[in-house]
Design brief:
Strand content: 5-15%
Order of helices and strands: EHHHHEHHEEHHHHHHE
Number of helices: 12
Largest sheet: 3 strands, antiparallel
Structural class: mainly alpha
Shape: globular
Strand order of the largest sheet: 2-4-3
Length: 250
């Protein structure tokens, strides 16, 4: 069997970059950057990881994530690479380093993931957003437990804005959501739309957020956001989710 016939998972692609990187690093030691500062092995591996994840993004998604903030990029990539909410902690941490995120530093403030034994559990909007209708009714959810407030006029992270929009759509309907989006000018936010589009592509069909995202990309809100739902593929089949070496050959 030819080498290019071997199937590689996306995780394999990332890990496979480490060996050649260390080999070149050893052969060319000492390695310096363009300012003649010494490059440590850890820094070289981070660069290799980032380069491979960039290739995966270009190959697997319909658009880039250049405008999307690092935390939201990590969130999308985690679903893209693993396809499940349970991810080995060290692998999730390494993926975070590849896009400039220390996942331990954001855990408490964002509630974007929790720990279950040796796994990271990636959280959806139900676990992060204070319910819009409940807030209107005067019910108070603890901010520390639900850090995303859908009544805010702006959001620190794109994933927070997307999760808030899903909560508003779920609790208030599409007409209200149309006005909510306009009030925050999210229809003109490239990063918001790229995050939403990418999540439709990477979330499993059975994930509750995916159905909400498809609804957000449809009808009036879809027209407002100018998200082409027809161009967004559904969850990959088992066969198409595997990447081969042949796919990345020039």
């Amino acid at each position: 069997m030819l080498e290019s016939d071997y199937n590689l998972t996306k995780t394999d692609m990332i890990i496979s970059a480490f060996g050649p990187t260390l080999q070149v690093f050893t052969q060319e030691y000492p390695v310096v950057d363009d300012r003649d500062n010494p490059v440590r092995p850890k820094e070289a591996l981070t660069e290799a990881r980032a380069a491979v994840t960039e290739v995966i993004i270009k190959h697997e998604l319909s658009g880039d994530l250049e405008s999307v903030d690092s935390l939201s990029t990590w969130y999308v990539l985690t679903w893209l690479v693993y396809g499940t909410e349970n991810v080995p902690y060290d692998e999730a941490r390494q993926l975070g380093l590849g896009v400039g995120v220390q996942i331990d530093d954001v855990k408490q403030g964002t509630k974007i993931w929790s720990k279950s034994r040796d796994d990271v559990v990636i959280k959806g909007q139900d676990y992060r957003v204070r319910d819009f209708s409940a807030l209107e009714a005067g019910e108070k959810r603890r901010k520390r437990a639900y850090p995303v407030d859908p009544t805010d006029s702006s959001f620190e992270y794109d994933i927070d804005a997307v999760h808030a929009a899903l909560n508003v759509l779920k609790t208030k309907g599409s007409d209200f959501t149309w006005n909510w989006l306009q009030d925050r000018d999210l229809q003109n936010s490239t990063s918001f739309k790229r995050t939403a589009e990418s999540l439709i592509q990477v979330l499993p069909d059975e994930h509750p957020d995916r159905e909400l995202l498809v609804n957000l990309a449809s009808g009036e809100t879809g027209d407002l956001l100018d998200i082409d739902e027809a161009s967004i593929t559904s969850t990959e089949s088992e066969e198409s989710s595997r990447t081969t070496l042949q796919d990345f050959q020039s």
